[in-house]
Design goal:
By secondary structure, the protein is of the alpha/beta class. The protein is about 55% helix and about 5% strand.
């Protein structure tokens, strides 16, 4: 066994394997542990394991450590304080797959730095290995289509990962100057101490990156400033012109965070063959969403201190939203607690010259938390940022038709939700809530739909609701609704729901909470299904509120 682990190639293979697992875990808990805290505790636990192995060598090799403190400091800053910190920051905005793919460029960067500073050259067999590795990574990134490489874009997470790659390459080259004669475990322990005393240690648990101004006292967090570079690909967003409800629409798009090329979106066709909702799916989120004990443990693990919403602000928001004002006293208290936790957990930012105010934050939080009143905050755990525009915003689109002709057009949107990314919303449209139109609930419904993967009109279901039942009832209702729209019927439900099953679910969720009588009358099977999914009965709630109001008036 000892001889086996003396094989450097085996150790390097194991290193890559552990690195990959590190990226997966780092991405998985990004919403629960800030990246700097993640880096600190990772190395703190590692140091506790390293210490017993390093201490026996400390006394005899202390002079070597003392004389070599300069290279050890550099190695500690790069290998311990730098690489993992940069990688965990990157994983806030890019996927584990992209992080590992970008990590495959470490050999290239190391070779370049070694050649530039040490004058080292590779042997032919080593060069061939690097080329094969690089070609494999490029094949995965491009999905076998070379043309894709010409359109690749990097988001902020990918940029941070490239910084981590450069950091590790420099660290690898700098190992040439490590103090000679120092035992590997002692050197690892020494560099770990140095790394823990810098970067992650200085900012333990305080956030994900540099300090920024707090835009609103209610948000408590730095805002979306660390996400703003991600919106470089949305530099074309502009304040749009006003438009009717039917003109603006609320399309959802789900660009994967990380390496990608501009999507060629096909115009949705009602009546086209629908892709079955039943497919191989990841059931982890579904199980977590249904496990009350696990949700409680996750909330404790987050240990985020809730923001306190001033009573007068809360009362003003509730009074302006009849579908929230209809809640019972206990439900309002529960919603307020959820909204306070939401504000402490999410990051708000504005664009287009809009000033972020308490009213904006509380209104969005209150409406957004209504669907999860009995589901819990963990239903929104997969994302952080909310960008608020003063009005509708314009997004240029392009798609390629069946003849290969590329068409370009502008979308004027009131809201957009990104899979694994932020939610963008128009404050003007937020204020238009009522009569079945609610941009906040609509976009938050998309976020629920994305909890178990790409949006498909079926959120992560809990026990008692099967995918077969959900698909059968929603597909039947969707087909009926599309037929009514195609026949020219003037429907009470927004015709935009006929776009596809994704929008059908989001639009019906809007109506479910604001005008539940419409859904109950037109699609009683869907109303019952939504009652079971959201664990709420808005129609009974509104009827009880109206009865209480009538009794009080008489």
């Amino acid at each position: 066994m000892k001889k086996l682990f003396a094989n450097p190639y085996l150790l390097l293979i194991l290193t890559v394997l552990f690195w990959s697992g590190n990226m997966v875990v780092g991405r998985g808990i990004r919403g629960d542990v800030p990246p700097l805290a993640m880096a600190f505790w990772r190395w703190f636990i590692a140091f506790a394991l390293i210490l017993p192995l390093a201490l026996p060598h400390l006394k005899s090799q202390w002079p070597l450590l003392k004389s070599g403190w300069k290279p050890l400091t550099v190695l500690g800053l790069l290998g311990i304080g730098g690489y993992n910190t940069f990688a965990y920051i990157a994983l806030q905005d890019t996927s584990a797959t992209n992080a590992n793919l970008l990590n495959s460029f470490v050999p290239i960067a190391t070779i370049a730095i070694s050649w530039a500073f040490l004058g080292k050259h590779l042997r032919p067999v080593e060069s061939a290995g690097v080329v094969i590795s690089l070609c494999g990574a490029m094949t995965i990134v491009s999905r076998g289509d070379v043309a894709v490489l010409a359109h690749l874009n990097l988001n902020v997470g990918d940029i941070w990962m490239l910084i981590a790659v450069l950091d590790w390459a420099i660290y690898t080259v700098a190992l040439a100057w490590r103090p000679a004669g120092v035992h590997p475990m002692l050197m690892l322990g020494a560099t770990t101490v140095i790394g823990l005393c810098t970067g992650p240690g200085l900012r333990l648990g305080t956030g994900a990156g540099p300090d920024y101004e707090h835009p609103s006292r209610l948000t408590q967090r730095p805002g979306l400033c660390r996400h703003i570079p991600q919106f470089s690909r949305l530099h074309f967003l502009q304040q749009g012109c006003g438009g009717s409800r039917c003109q603006q629409g609320q399309p959802v798009h789900s660009p994967h965070a990380g390496l990608r090329h501009p999507a060629l979106l096909r115009i949705p066709r009602r009546g086209a063959v629908l892709v079955s909702l039943l497919r191989d799916r990841t059931d982890l989120h579904r199980h977590l969403a249904d496990d009350e004990t696990m949700r409680t443990l996750l909330d404790r693990f987050r240990s985020k201190k809730s923001t306190v919403i001033p009573e007068h602000v809360w009362a003003m928001i509730v009074a302006s939203l009849p579908f929230i004002d209809a809640l019972t006293v206990d439900e309002k208290k529960k919603l307020k607690t959820l909204a306070e936790g939401f504000l402490a957990e999410k990051e708000f930012s504005t664009a287009g010259g809009l000033d972020l105010t308490d009213e904006i934050c509380v209104s969005i939080a209150a409406q957004g938390c209504l669907p999860i009143l009995n589901l819990g905050l963990s239903a929104y755990r997969e994302w952080i940022g909310i960008v608020v525009y003063p009005d509708e915003f314009v997004v240029p689109r392009r798609f390629e038709d069946e003849s290969g002709v590329v068409h370009e057009y502008d979308d004027v949107l009131s809201g957009e939700a990104w899979e694994g990314g932020p939610l963008i919303i128009s404050w003007h449209d937020v204020q238009m809530a009522g009569d079945g139109y609610n941009v906040v609930i609509h976009e938050f419904a998309h976020k629920l739909d994305m909890l178990n993967g790409e949006p498909d009109g079926m959120p992560a279901l809990h026990s008692g609701i099967t995918e077969t039942e959900w698909q059968a009832k929603f597909s039947a209702a969707f087909d009926d609704f599309c037929q009514r729209v195609d026949d020219g019927e003037e429907t009470v439900i927004d015709p935009y729901a006929s776009t596809d099953l994704v929008e059908f679910f989001a639009v019906l969720t809007e109506s479910f909470f604001e005008t539940p009588d419409v859904i109950a009358d037109e699609y009683p099977a869907i109303y019952g299904l939504l009652c079971r999914y959201y664990r709420q009965d808005p129609l009974s709630r509104l009827m009880n509120a109206a009865k209480a109001s009538s009794t009080a008036a008489s």
